Amino acid sequence: MRGHERSAAIEVAAPMCGLAGFWNSPRDVVGVEPEQVVLRMASALRHRGPDDQGIWADARVGLALGHRRLAILDLSAEGHQPMLSADGRYVLAFNGEIYNFHALQCGLEKRGHSFRGHSDTEVMLAAFCEWGLLPALAHFVGMFAFALWDRRARTLSLVRDRAGEKPLYYGWSGEAFVFGSELKALRAYPAWHGGVNRGALALLVRYGYIPAPLSIYENIYKLPPGCVLALTEAQFHTRDAPRPEPYWSLQTIAEAGTAHPFDGAEQEAGERLEALLLQSVAQQMVADVPLGAFLSGGIDSSLVVALMQAQSPRPVRTFSIGFHQHGFNEAPFAKAVAGHLGTDHTELYVQDEDLRQVVPRLPSIYDEPLADPSQIPTVLLCRLAGEHVKVSLSGDAGDELFGGYDLYRKTQRLWPALRRIPEDSRKRLARQLKVLSSAGLNLKSAPGAARWVLNRLGNLSDVLPVSSDRSLYQLLMSPNREASAWVIEASEPATPLSAPGPWENLPELLHRMMWLDSVSYLPDDILVKLDRAAMSVGLETRIPFLDHRVIEFAWSLPASIKQRRNQGKWLLRRILHQYVPPALVQRPKKGFAAPIAEWLRGSLRDWAEHLLGETRLRQEGFFEPRGLRQKWQEHLAKRRDWSPGLWHVLMFQAWLDQQKVLPDRTDVVELAGQTMTGAEVCRP
Fold first, then answer.
1. What is the 3-state secondary structure (H, E, C) of 507-525?
2. pLDDT, tens digit, 9 for 90 and up, residues 291-341
3. What letter would DSSP give residue 217?
4. What phi, psi does 142 have (nearest 5°)?
5. What is residue 386's three-state secondary structure?
6. Which pLDDT does position 232 carry in this prediction?
7. What angle do CA 371, 518, 94 make, to 5 degrees?
8. Distance of CA 622 to the CA centre of its chain
9. Which residues of 518-557 are buried (b: 16+ CB within 10 A; e: fewer)?
């Protein structure tokens, strides 16, 4: 390592892996050493990595990498990051796990590579040295986001895993290119500038999440799943930002799988899928720390736990969340499945006190606004699991891969019926129903049964004018269909939700909907919700269904063995029934939902009232105060259920409140100096 490049190894005892960094002209790093700046950025991610912290900087180039580590494999100092390759060419800051690194290490040793420790990070670096970046990625099985500096080619590469399990943000803040696992790391850059992206806000208010590549800030983006963004030194100096390029494309996988589907017998398909899932689960159970699983008692989590227990010599630790509201409670089902499989099961029922503790923390846990109400039980579930284990497997992604959502079947029923009616006739009827519904719901004296009917008529008036199966599904997947009337001076920008993509190229409506969810709802809502909740308590989560070999095989399966007899996930059910009796798991799908409408009228009412005050809404200028206050009052009076849209607004308002109390950025020198005290700075 040359004299102008420095590395600091810092031993810490604070609360999953996270990375941060920047690239700026050396003369523009606000008068402080780059190590100090990147240390502050990495320190903002201490919740993601309690076990170790490290930084690396090249002062001549103006580039610095920071890392926080949660040690799951190789608990020794040999896993310390950022890590240099044996030949000194590459520097890597990596968040995630490479599940097949043992096999890769054996193969690389046969090619002449030697290893100091037992970390997947060291194996990745050897793979880059042997094959180069893109060929090496084809070998990796895992979840990851990383920054790789190629000192020979003078190129910074940002990379995200195929499904988007691990996050990575990037963009320009003034003259600096900044990046990190979470936005709080970018905000810690001393010259940070971040204005709210009103287009992203409009999408948040409609969907409850912000689709990639957008973020809540202008000029800051999420790296899409399966992509590499490579920034050369020449591009950096000209501010010529490159486009992310896919190294693995779900669109290609989906189109190829449906064009050339699996043509074997159903039994053969089941056996092959079971073998792939067993392999995925086995690889993801490798850890040097305590391990468990989330269990809801549904098809997906029950199957993951069953495959874990089938390969474990001792009872698997399982965890579930329950609600006192009967319509939302799945804890008894989880307990029954756990009893049958013989797991060591722990459950927690959500109390009002849990809400009062968790809800104020949501803006810091999800430092980009997320408004999926199930984030509350997810945080509580991760907290529960984190008290007992350091790694937990999850059954997420089964719905997107095997057609499980009820919304799929609803769309499949509705569209054939709608298309038989001329569009002009449907639009006229929709206008009439909208007037009737609105007038009736505005009557304070309307009884509950009448309101239920009027709400259904209002929903029908939304659906009737749609012009295509895609517009129908996008409408149904929008929890708040009136978002444009809520946000001031905002229009919804283009995203994968609006881009043509392969929708027209996929032959069946079921596969079209599954694809759209897999590139939007799954990575930008479900995986964000899980990652941030788990990271907030130092828990690593792993998702066996997102092994890319499982994804690729799932997309080759015909719709007829994913959906049958008005049920989704037909093939998964057949596999599960070999381990768990059908009676324990056959029931209507509930999903991991939360009784948010009731909570807003009860335990969370005062919190919501503070955030929806008319004066502050007017001063902040993001939402139309009069209409929003009217909806709030209608919700409290039980005249309308506006909870989806209200929750979306409330999550932004709570996030905005948190932004107002962020620490001053100008104390970087003082803070960095304090944090560096006692650190060993190595200058080989």
1. CCHHHHHHHHHHHCHHHHH
2. 999 999 999 999 999 999 999 999 999 999 998 877 778 899 999 999 999
3. B
4. 170, -170
5. helix
6. 96
7. 80
8. 25
9. bbbbbbbbbbbbbbbbbbbbbbbbbbbbbbbebbbbbbbb
